[in-house]
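Lab meeting prep.
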Amino acid sequence: MGRFYLIGLVVFLGIVYIGIGFGFYYYMKKKVVHGRRLIDHSVNEQTRTDKMGIGEYVTYGSMIVVAILAIIPILSKGGSGNAILARLIILPPIMALFNARKRTGRSMLVLIIAFLFFMFGMMAYLIIGIPKKAPTLKINDTKLIVTKTTVGDMMKDGFDIYIRQEKHISSKYSEILSSGEYEKYSANRSVLIKKEFKQHSYPVARSPYLLVKNGVVIGGIEVYGDKNKEVALEDCKITYFVLDQDNLPEVRKNSISYQFEGVDLFSKLTLETVRKAFGKKLWLFPSNPTSKTDLCYGIQWSTRSDLIWNEYYSYIRFDEQNDITSFELSSKIPKDN
């Protein structure tokens, strides 16, 4: 119910701001001062009534753009104090544009409505934020975008899907595709995925599904269909991908490449390289590692509200030579309750 409360709050604020706008319009239209409606009265001391030139528009527009660019990082930090500071930055250039010519109550009404619209947008951003762009994993020439790419998309690019059997046979990894533990999916829309989202972490050898190409296990995956109905496996979106020490030697041997947001996962994963690629999204990194378990990069794409938007997480583990030992890319889809 939490997501519905947040959406309801944003809708309520929208109705309130619309009501305030109509209230100002009604008041200025009905209020009469010195025989004239307030909406027709002059509201500043400027006497110039000629049209503004392109140069003036460019000047004032540049000032407003600079102000907007200045307040974006301020708003991203949240807090009522930062919201007040943002208003103090954006209002002067707007008022300078407004007072550049003689204005009537109609112009003031337009400014008020624009300000209310800006306030609503700012409040909505503070409450629910904006969605994050899903990260992309490129396997050779195929792009896998979690929560976007479907199983069918991967199959069209020549990948096979193997499904873990419930009554599996414990086997060596070298026999994972031939022991009966996994069965190749025949792509006949015979497998339906239940209407639920699972957020788990698996090793490749215990993943519910394997992504395979030319007999090589590319990685383990998890999928999600729909919140209201069962969906054929082909139409399900991939929500989780894992690569680990079990299948790393095989993919290296077959010259399969992995590019994660532009980072070659088989290159030297130095802190400088990873930090340059992910910036503030990099929240976990080894500062003073005391064991191999500390050699890990944690990357997250978090939002202001995980009740509304998807969130994404990745863990890249490596050894003392900065070579990858495992890679996980997962997602968190908002729950329905």
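Slide two material, second protein:
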Amino acid sequence: MLIQQKIQKGILFFLSGISFVIFLLPANGEVIISQQVSGEAVYITDTHIYYIPDKSVNIIISFVNNSSENVLALGLQCFVPQGWQFQGTSTGNNAPAIYPQPGKVSDGSTPFEFAWINIPPFPFDFTFSVNIPSDFQGPTQINSQALYRYTGEQLTSNIAQTSFEGVGIPQEGEGQIEGEGEGGNDNMSCAEKIVKGCCSDNKKATQQIKNILVDLLFMLIVIGILGISIRSNPKE
């Protein structure tokens, strides 16, 4: 516990099926959050994560309480780039009671704020969506931090950060994740994950087989026509 409290900065790099997350250890508390992104606006390669303008991204925040004390108050601040528009939150028991008005546009400096009246049991996560404007360009980040209280003063969690390299244009053979929901499933098939390019080899093989079958069918038709012609014109 004491060693963990003395750690002011630490960086862990996570690579999962749906996002890259930079995870900073907590500065003054026991609540830790992590952040992932998914949706049609998210495009990843082996080493970087990109966004696709004029599409929506799902931001998934996960909360963990490493203390035996009960959290009596909980909120979240999420800083998204200027011009990104809040779409809404997931429904269910984990949804916050207070959240931005759908359609609210970020000014780049004021965070989107969320608060829970009935705090869900830890650990839990929730998802909200934002839309990226069509003219947005350049590298950018999404930064989130939880604000909470046990019985004393307000505490802050680590800052969870997702960095985008810039605008991404999907290429065949590289993954563009278009899933929605909370979390990912590494056991899902290509069709279920809807990852473009992961099945490109199978598609090529299937197309080759189709071409062979078409050629074979054409040959059979030609042979049949010739056979009919010969039978209808026997040699005298």
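Talking points for slide two:
The longest strand covers residues 56-65.
The two ends are 105 Å apart (CA to CA).
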